[in-house]
């Protein structure tokens, strides 16, 4: 079993942090070298949206991987991955708010109400805000462990909403390959939690019952 010490974990966290910034560095590099394509706004929007979903999936994958591998240290990466999901979600939203609507709130809200897939994505972003705001150790102490855990279960709603946002957006182009793949991964990650938190405890409870005489 791979069981790194605190110094090794610090190195791993630094590597993950720098790797998580590579998508942003790529966008900046492409912008300076004029490689964002014929429609730069669409390229940035698609890239930041994709990476939001990648990081959501990675965040949700930490617990199943920890259970399967017994690498308990993986839990130390979950907060960082979740914050990067929020970071790229904010960049995704700011691309829409800045380049599409030039910071005009009225026009933005009209667009949000008019197009359902934007409304779904906007709700997902709003739900991510309290999760990011309460991600510190200080907030965990203030809220208490149980209340903090209940609040952070919103991620189980954010994930499907992100998939629905992506699916609805791609529906206009009749392109369902990527949303289907993301949806399958998200469903697998959420179903694994149902198995470990609901099905497995019930099975163990049945096994522990004494056999009828």
UniProtKB/TrEMBL annotation:
InterPro entries: Fe3_Rdtase_TM_dom, MsrQ-like. The chain crosses the membrane at residues 51-68, 80-99, 119-138, 150-168, 180-199. Its cofactor is FMN; heme b. The keyword DNA repair does not apply. Coiled coil: none annotated. The keyword 4Fe-4S does not apply. Binds 1 FMN per subunit. Binds 1 heme b (iron(II)-protoporphyrin IX) group per subunit. Pfam families: Ferric_reduct (PF01794). It is a multi-pass membrane protein. Its main location: membrane. It is found in: Cell membrane; Membrane. Part of the MsrPQ system that repairs oxidized periplasmic proteins containing methionine sulfoxide residues (Met-O), using respiratory chain electrons. Thus protects these proteins from oxidative-stress damage caused by reactive species of oxygen and chlorine generated by the host defense mechanisms. MsrPQ is essential for the maintenance of envelope integrity under bleach stress, rescuing a wide series of structurally unrelated periplasmic proteins from methionine oxidation. Heterodimer of a catalytic subunit (MsrP) and a heme-binding subunit (MsrQ). This is Protein-methionine-sulfoxide reductase heme-binding subunit MsrQ. It comes from Noviherbaspirillum album. The gene is msrQ.
């Amino acid at each position: 079993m791979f069981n790194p010490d605190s110094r090794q974990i610090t190195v791993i966290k630094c590597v993950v942090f720098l790797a998580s910034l590579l998508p942003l560095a790529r966008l900046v590099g492409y912008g300076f070298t004029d490689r964002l394509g014929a429609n730069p706004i669409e390229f940035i929007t698609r890239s930041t949206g994709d990476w939001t979903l990648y990081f959501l999936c990675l965040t949700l994958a930490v617990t199943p991987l920890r259970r399967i591998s017994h690498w308990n240290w993986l839990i130390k990466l979950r907060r960082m991955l979740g914050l990067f999901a929020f970071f790229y979600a904010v960049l995704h939203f700011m691309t829409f708010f800045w380049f599409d609507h030039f910071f005009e709130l009225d026009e933005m809200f009209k667009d949000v109400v008019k197009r359902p897939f934007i409304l779904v994505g906007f709700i997902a972003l709003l739900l991510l805000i309290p999760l990011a705001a309460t991600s510190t150790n200080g907030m965990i102490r203030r809220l208490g462990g149980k209340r903090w855990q209940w609040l952070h279960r919103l991620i189980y709603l954010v994930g499907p909403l992100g998939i629905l946002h992506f699916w609805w957006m791609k529906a206009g182009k009749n392109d369902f390959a990527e949303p289907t793949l993301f949806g399958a991964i998200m469903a697998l990650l959420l179903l694994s939690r149902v198995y470990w938190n609901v099905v497995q405890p019930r099975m163990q409870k049945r096994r522990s019952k004494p056999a009828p005489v």
